[in-house]
Amino acid sequence: MFDHIGFEVKDLQKSKRFYELVLAPLGVKLIADLVEWKAAGFGIERPQFWISAGRPTSGDDQVHLCFSAKNRGEVRSFYEAAMKAGARDNGAPGSRPEYHEHYYGAFVLDLDGYNIEACCHSPE
């Protein structure tokens, strides 16, 4: 639905490594490492998710970003990778019938406190 999205992080190198580990189970990888712009782009075929060195948002400006997973196993792998990479739990993998019958997701808070999710919409 979107072409690309990005936000600022406190420590670009730490966040870049965090997202490399966390997004790998979803098939997403670091595609663009623009050192001169202090930015990194992640994606599958092209960079669609960007982080850059700067000042993270806080309070009411908090970011929520959800990555698509092919299946529930990918959601669980995303969550496990995130926890190992230093994320904080914000909702363990599980069904979320309040969203819809087959919604399955996991939520973590990244190194800057952003609410990052992976979800799938299939019954398996």
What does this structure look like?
By secondary structure, the chain is an alpha/beta fold. It has a single domain, classed as 2,3-Dihydroxybiphenyl 1,2-Dioxygenase, domain 1 (Roll), CATH 3.10.180. Helices cover 20% and strands 39% of the residues. It is built from 2 helices and 8 strands. It has helices spanning 12-23, 72-84, and strands at residues 5-9, 29-34, 39-43, 47-53, 64-68, 88-95, 104-109, 115-120. Strands 1-4-3-2 form a 4-stranded mixed beta sheet, covered by helices on one side. The protein has a 4-stranded mixed beta sheet with strand order 5-8-7-6, covered by helices on one side. Helix 1 runs antiparallel to helix 2 (72-84). The longest helix has 13 residues, at 72-84.
CATH architecture: Roll
Average pLDDT across residues?
94
The amount of beta strand, in percent, is: 35-45%
Question: Looking at this structure, what is the CATH superfamily?
Answer: 2,3-Dihydroxybiphenyl 1,2-Dioxygenase, domain 1
In the predicted model, the low-confidence regions spanning at least 5 consecutive residues are none
CA distance, first residue to last residue: 23 Å
Count of extended strands: 8
CATH fold node name: 2,3-Dihydroxybiphenyl 1,2-Dioxygenase, domain 1
Which CATH class? Alpha Beta
Instruction: Let me know the largest β-sheet.
Output: 4 strands, mixed
Q: Helix- and strand-based class?
A: alpha/beta
The backbone outline, from C-alpha atoms, is globular
**Number of helices, counting only DSSP H or I runs of 4 residues or more:** 2
How many structural domains does the protein architecture include?
Answer: 1
| Cα-based radius of gyration, to the nearest Å | 14 Å
Helix-strand string: EHEEEEHEEE
Q: Strands of the largest sheet, in order across it? A: 1-4-3-2
Helix content: 10-25%
